[in-house]
Amino acid sequence: MDIAIIGASGYTGGDLIRLLLTHSDADVVAATSRKEDGQSIWKMHPNLKGLCELKFSNPGIGDIEADFVFLAVPHTVAMNYAGELKEKGIKTVDLSADYRLSKEIYEKTYGVEHKAYFEAPYGLPEIHREEIRKAGFVANPGCFPTGATLAAAPLAEKANTIIFDSKTGVSGAGANPSATNQYSNVADSLKAYKWTGHRHLAEMKQEIKGLGSKAVCHFTPHLLPVNRGILTTAHILLDEPMTTEEVSETYEKFYEKEFFVRMQDPVLASVRGSNFCDIAVEAENESTRVVAVSAIDNLVKGASGQAIQNMNIMCGYKETDGLLSAPIFP
Ligand SMILES: NC(=O)C1=CN([C@@H]2O[C@H](COP(=O)(O)OP(=O)(O)OC[C@H]3O[C@@H](n4cnc5c(N)ncnc54)[C@H](OP(=O)(O)O)[C@@H]3O)[C@@H](O)[C@H]2O)C=CC1
Ligand SMILES: CC(=O)N[C@@H](CCC(=O)OP(=O)(O)O)C(=O)O
């Protein structure tokens, strides 16, 4: 199957190419970039030198010939491509935020008009696998909402309040130089940002509500001086207290068939480079608080790996195809 990656010079584009090298039937035939048109892939992704001979190109949307497309461009840009890809019947996963929310909530959250809106399944396979299977276009979830939703989903129906506290690696801000990813602003430090108003809260609310929950959700992200990874601590306030044993059993059962969710001590170093989400849970004594912690690699389960997982489901491949490289530890 021929694959085109639109926006391949960025971090998620690079990880799509890296992961697809091990896919049994996916050949990346086009990797687009405006700035790097004509340059070898390894100029932007030096880890791929010797492994991928492709050069960046900059075709018009009408000239893209592929069986499957990944949109790895910023939000508000993806919507310029989505309509035509859908019309042409080219299966697509959009890594941006453009199709994750309802039109009304998207426009309110992002403060822009959506020029090409249509509904698309939310590409979190552990929750929406059957909708994804039937879809031609899937909206890949945000990195924070992936770790947060997976951490809280098994208890969502029993919760009245969920507070998500996440620590993210710097690659979440993309490859373009900015104040967020400048070394001297990040190294040897830790800071909270967008304390109450991060745009990903809208996705968390949508997904938790979709699980039949009445819980009020809150979210604060923190910027951690590491390249990859998101550790999310979910403080889940229940209507009735549960023991750690009961909570653990609930999670084990909820995820028993999910290869990419592992119940073990969540540590960024044990998921790095992989599509795994590691989760552990503990109930507080004499309280209704349960603490669920998840760890993902923001560029893999939080973006490119999950996008390939969705492609595999949409196209009938084994869900793990291209996603079985073990995490890099330590
Ligand atoms: N980084 C992360 O952890 C995650 C990112 N995402 C989302 O995935 C998408 C890609 O993210 P990431 O790879 O980090 O971003 P980068 O900033 O690293 O890369 C963005 C890519 O989009 C291209 N691009 C930018 N503007 C335009 C434009 N106007 N027209 C065409 N191409 C454009 C750039 O190419 P060039 O400038 O060379 O043309 C580049 O290849 C974004 O929507 C992001 O929000 C989702 C989950 C996690
Ligand atoms: C460190 C950092 O800046 N992280 C980004 C993560 C955004 C992201 O990648 O999510 P989308 O897919 O919705 O764009 C942020 O907090 O906005």
CATH topology of the largest domain: Dihydrodipicolinate Reductase, domain 2
Order of helices and strands: EHEHEEHEHHEHEHEHEEHEEEH
Enumerate the spans where pLDDT stays under 50 for 5 or more consecutive residues: none
**Count of separate DSSP helical elements:** 10
- Tally of distinct domains: 2
Classification by helices and strands: alpha/beta
GO molecular function, one term: NAD binding
Subcellular location: Cytoplasm
Family: Belongs to the NAGSA dehydrogenase family. Type 1 subfamily.
Pathway: Amino-acid biosynthesis; L-arginine biosynthesis; N(2)-acetyl-L-ornithine from L-glutamate: step 3/4
Which terms would index this structure?
330 residues; alpha/beta; Rossmann fold; Dihydrodipicolinate Reductase, domain 2; 2 domains; binds NADPH dihydro-nicotinamide-adenine-dinucleotide phosphate; binds N-acetyl-L-glutamyl 5-phosphate; NAD(P)-bd_dom_sf; AGPR; EC 1.2.1.38; NADP+ binding; oxidoreductase
